[in-house]
Specification:
alpha+beta; binds tetrahydrodeoxyuridine; 6 strands; six-stranded mixed sheet; globular; Cytidine Deaminase, domain 2
């Protein structure tokens, strides 16, 4: 990793090399997943139909399962003023927050790809979406599971921390 400054006694410094590891499951096919996850993957793929992506042509669908079993779908919505658009994940999470206030999030599944295709390897959520996932995970004090869908592999993470290490949350502010 980093070199220690030269010419100083090795025991003068307390710096330590650290490593963060993450755990996730990789499935080769959706059929390997538990039935509720299979249903959510199907919903994320369906949600791509709602993508409005005339600029990027990259269609992303998201399906969010709430703890009461409700599935809320989202799809990326673009705008000619590019930053005004919104990703599929935040579209789904904000729709859930607005329509089912106080109902905790359980699992968020995401599928993206060009046009009708879904990426072979899972498309990863952008940093802003990960930050929003972290907010709801903290709000509901409950791990939010994340499923990233590709045609050659599906990844499942048991908590947002695994895709957003060193989370900035309200504890950081207090
Ligand atoms: N997009 C998402 O919807 N989710 C992501 O995680 C990454 C990117 C959208 C934003 C934009 O409409 C298109 O994909 C290309 O970046």
């Amino acid at each position: 990793m980093f070199d220690r400054p030269k010419g100083k006694r090795a025991d003068f410094y307390t710096m330590t090399d650290k490593r963060i590891t993450i755990d996730y499951i990789e499935y080769a096919a959706v059929g390997e997943m538990e039935p509720l996850d299979q249903e959510l993957v199907a919903a994320a793929l369906e949600a791509r139909a709602g993508s409005y992506s005339p600029y990027s042509k990259f269609r992303v669908g998201a399906a969010l399962r709430l703890v009461d079993g409700t599935i809320v779908k989202g799809a990326n919505q673009e705008n000619i003023a590019y930053p005004s658009g919104l990703c599929a994940e935040r579209t789904a999470m904000f729709a859930a927050g607005a329509n089912y206030p106080g109902v905790a999030f359980d699992t968020l599944a995401v599928a993206g790809g060009n046009g009708a295709e879904v990426c072979e390897m899972p498309a990863a959520p952008c940093g802003a979406c990960r930050q929003v996932m972290a907010e709801y995970q903290k709000l509901f004090d409950r791990p939010l599971k994340v499923i990233l869908i590709g045609t050659h592999a599906i990844y499942k993470f048991s908590k947002v921390d695994d895709i957003l290490p060193l989370i900035f949350d309200s504890l950081t502010l207090s």
